[in-house]
Amino acid sequence: MQASSCGQWKKKANVAQVLNSILISSCSSTRLRMASAKANRKAATVAVELPECPVCMETMSAPIFQCQSGHSLCNSCTQNLMPPMCPICRQPLTQMRNWQLEDIIAKAKVPCANKAAGCVYTMVSRDMEEHLKECIFREMDCPFGVAFGKCSWSGKLKDMMEHFKERHAQNCNVTTDEEIELTNVDAKIDDRHLYLVSQSKMLFIITMKIDTLQKMAYWAIQHIGSKKAAHDHIYEIHILSKQNSRRKVVFTEHCFNDALKPDEVFRTGKCAVLPLDVLINFISNKKLSFRFFIKRIPAEHKNNKGDGNDNKPQGPKGPGPKGPNKDMQKNKSNGQNAPGPKGQKANKPQA
């Protein structure tokens, strides 16, 4: 009896060990699968090779439509195919969206399309469109041509100033050291002036406009680059009167970047604005002068949140009134008054 019970106990112990080993291996494999899944999700957010449209061979972008067989095409190809037939299976295209593929593309991080030109930015594709509007490595049109339609140049930012020096020399020779004098100015006629300015290896566009419909004159300075870099700069416009040297108007405002058109900046009113019935007091012999200054906001001003001492009055930096000298303090300690003004005798201490 004892031998049989001992054998049964050993069998139960062996079964328990086997079950325990199976449970441990199951848990470890589960952990491995969870870890690999996390790694795959992390890798998917870091770099994903985005699918290409089978028609134009460009990277897919939303909205993405499918044919009856499930093939996906980009939006531009879907609109341009006539008749609307899938080029792969010849089945009719539908208005059914491939939401899963659109979601993958929206969450994937992709390099800037101007990477070959030197841009190092990588971001999710949903933010790429805004970045491309302000990327300094993008292909740019001549600002003078955009404003007046008289120049077809396009190129890189690094070549823009040289282009202005060659083709628009009168529109890039302005500095903060001297006045800009406009000629043939008439407050009753629409007019526009544009200048390209280089400062601290950055380019800025100055635009002045007379709008007879709105009965306003506008000045704005825009930075060619990112919104953040633009907002880190402020500018001043000093409008000087040709009729009275003491008459002057000064405007101060943050810079916008060139992703916004000058007329859009003027519509916001966040620029230098002067009514035309006031502007006529600054014009003489059809001439108008103004000066400009562009300043970078210091880091301590941007990050200054107040330390509680901003409202405390500060004393003069120069030497203040002198305190009593040692002899006066010594006399006071001996019970003597300080010497009076000249011509008067000091009072003698009473006994």
Automatic annotation (TrEMBL):
Boundaries of every RING-type domain copy: 53-90
MF terms (GO), sorted A to Z: ubiquitin conjugating enzyme binding; ubiquitin protein ligase activity; zinc ion binding
EC number: 2.3.2.27
This protein's record includes keyword Manganese: no
Keyword Zinc-finger included in the entry's annotation: yes
Compositional bias (Basic and acidic residues): 300-310
Domain of life: Eukaryota
GO annotation terms (biological process): proteasome-mediated ubiquitin-dependent protein catabolic process
SIAH-type domain sequence ranges: 107-169
UniProt keyword terms in alphabetical order: Metal-binding, Transferase, Ubl conjugation pathway, Zinc, Zinc-finger
Domain free text: The RING-type zinc finger domain is essential for ubiquitin ligase activity. The SBD domain (substrate-binding domain) mediates the interaction with substrate proteins. It is related to the TRAF family.
Function: E3 ubiquitin-protein ligase that mediates ubiquitination and subsequent proteasomal degradation of target proteins. E3 ubiquitin ligases accept ubiquitin from an E2 ubiquitin-conjugating enzyme in the form of a thioester and then directly transfers the ubiquitin to targeted substrates.
Family per similarity comment: Belongs to the SINA (Seven in absentia) family.
Protein name: E3 ubiquitin-protein ligase
Lineage: Eukaryota, Metazoa, Ecdysozoa, Arthropoda, Hexapoda
